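New to this. Help decode both lines:
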Amino acid sequence: MRMKRLLLRFMLVFLAVLTISYAAAPFDSSDGGHEKTERSRTRNLTSPKIQSLHTEGLARYIGVSNSYFKDKFGEPDEKIDSIEGVEWWNYDVNQNDYLRVGIDKYTKKVCDIIELSAKLGQQLSVGMSMEQVLKKTTLYANFAFDVNEQTAQIELSEYDLNNHPLVSFDNGSYAILDFTPRKKKVVYAIHYLDKNELLRGKYYRVLSKTPLPSRYVSKIDWEKHDGDFSKDLVSQLNVKRLQEGKVPVEYDYNAECVALDLMNSLEANPRKYLSKKEFEEYRLIRAETFENTRIFYRVPKNISKDLMKDADVSSDYRVYIAGPILTNTLFYTDNNLYENIWKTLSDSKTEKISVVFRKTLVVIVVEN
C-alpha cells in the first residue's frame, strides 16, 4: 500500500513538471528565444580583441590643446557657441574643405572634429563605400575603455553597424562613420571624438553603469546662437552640394520674413498647430530641458494648414519645421531628417532657402 502511495505521488509530481515544461516552451520561443537570437546575431559581429587603427590624419588632433590646433590650422572663420560645453570652430566655410572642430570649453582641448570633405582623410575618407571601409578595418559591436577612472562598455546594434559604425585609433580617439541611408551606402561624414564625447553624445547603448558626462552644461546667448546656427546650416548644405557638383543654394532674405512669421505664429499658439506629443517636446524645448527630448519634424505634406493660413504663407513656398536641433549635423546623421528634409535641401531643384532658428527649433522655407 505504501509503495502504491509513493508511486502515485511520483506520477503526480512528474505530470506537474511535464505540464509546466510544455506551458513554458511557447513563452521562451516567442520572447526569450527571440531575444537570444537577436543577442547572438549582434555578438557574432564582434571580436573580443579590438584592433585599433594607426593614428593619422585628423584623429591625431583629438586631445590636443586649442592653441596647438590654431598653430597648425590658423584662426577659424567662425566660432559658434553651444549648450553642450563645446565651442565649434569652423574652417573654410562654404568651400569643399569645410572643417568643423569642437573645443571643450573647460579643458580647452580638441574633443570633436567633423569632416565633410573627401580631401582631408587618409585611411578613412568621406565617399568610401562599406566594402572599401571593410578593407581598411574590421567593424566591432562592443567596445570597452577607461574614462574618468572607470571602465565604460558600449554596444552597437546591427542597425548602428550598418549605418553609423565606430572605429578606434591607437591614441585613444574614435570615429563614427556616418553612411548615407541609401541602397549603395557611402560615408557622408566622419565624426572624430574623444571618450567623453562618445559617452556624452549617447550615440550607442551603454552597457556599463558608468556615470555619463553631463550633456547640456552651458548657458549661452540664444540670439547669437540662433543666427550662427542658421548660417552654419546653409554652409554645411552648400559644402555637400559643391561636392556633388551642384550649385550652392542662395539665401532668400525675402523668404526669411515668411519663416519669421511662421515661427512667431507657432510660438503664439503651439497647441493649435502641433500634436499632443509634439507639444510636449516643444514645451521641453522652451524650458531648455533637452536631456529627454525627442526630435519631431513637419514637412510640406503635413504642415498645419491653419499655421500656413495664420502666417499668411502663399503656395510659392514649402515649409519644414524640426526640433530640437542641437547640432546641424543631425540633418544628415539622423535618418528621418536626412530622408525627409536634407535630401530635398540637397536636391538641385532647390535654389533658394531661408532658415530661422529659435532655441533649437528651426523653420526652413524653400521657394518653389
